[in-house]
Structures are given as C-alpha cells and as structure tokens.
Design brief:
The protein is mainly alpha-helical. It is built from eight helices and no strands.
C-alpha cells in the first residue's frame, strides 16, 4: 500500500479521472492488479491441492469466494494480518458450531453481521485503532493512569 504501485492503485480507487489526468494509465494498473491477484490465488490453490492431495468441487463453488470475502471483512481490510485473523475466526467458529448441522451458515451469518456492525474496520483494524488511541493519551493523563495502575497495595 505504501509503494508507488500501491499509491497509484489507491489514487485510481479514490478518483480515477484525476489519476488519469496525472498521467497514469489506469487500465494498465487495474490489469496488473488483477493479474497479480489471479497469480496469488492460483498459487494458493495449487499449494492447497499439493498439501491436502485433494482438489474437490467445493473448492471452486461460489460459496468459497464468499467465505474468503467474509474472512477478509471480519479480520480487517487493508491490513496484512486481518484476513489471517478472519480465517482463524471463521474456521474456528465453523468447527465449534459444527454440531448445529445446516444452521452453521445461518449462525455464522448472524455473527458476521453483528461483528461488522460492532467492528467497522474488522478485528485487526479495531485493535490497531485502539492501539493508536491509547498511544495518543496525553502525558498528564498517562502519568495519572500509571500512578493508579502501579500504586502499591496498602
């Protein structure tokens, strides 16, 4: 995101006509982003097939794409570890709820809607925002907080 390529993609996302007027070939950059995404997706699929020694039809069903988007949104878009955290959360949730049979999808959907309403930036995005908010605490307030937390028990 901070490389020149990422900055151009952000500029195209925010205001494509302006990026074009600045001299960037938006079609070329969008095509390159699509090719890069397809390459990484193909690599991930091939590694999965090699590791599990299996490539089933459920891997190419439309629900798998929805599940990947769900993992990314739940973990946090725009972060490196967000989709990883989202994947662990969704897989763990589905494993934990496996006793409910066909209701797993409905329960996962309800939990997803609740998480999206509660965590607008995703889990990792909210944690990063909380970290930044705690670091912006004024020095006087942080000193007072330190005294309260570190105060000896009498």
């Amino acid at each position: 995101m901070h490389s020149p390529f990422g900055q151009v993609l952000k500029a195209i996302r925010e205001n494509e006509p302006r990026a074009i007027s600045l001299g960037y070939d938006a079609e070329k950059y969008k095509l390159l982003a699509f090719v890069l995404s397809a390459t990484l997706s193909g690599l991930a699929g091939s590694v999965k097939a090699i590791v599990f020694q299996l490539a089933s039809l459920t891997d190419v069903h439309w629900t798998m794409s929805g599940e990947v988007v769900l993992m990314t949104l739940l973990g946090g878009m725009g972060t490196i570890f967000g989709p990883v955290v989202g994947a662990f959360a969704i897989v763990g949730l589905e494993s934990y709820l496996s006793g409910f049979g066909q209701w797993v999808t409905v329960i996962t959907g309800v939990i997803f809607v609740a998480c999206v309403l509660a965590f607008r930036r995703g889990i990792v995005g909210e944690l990063i925002e909380l970290w930044h908010r705690l670091r912006r605490t004024p020095p006087a307030a942080s000193a007072a907080l330190r005294e309260v937390v570190v105060a000896p028990q009498e």
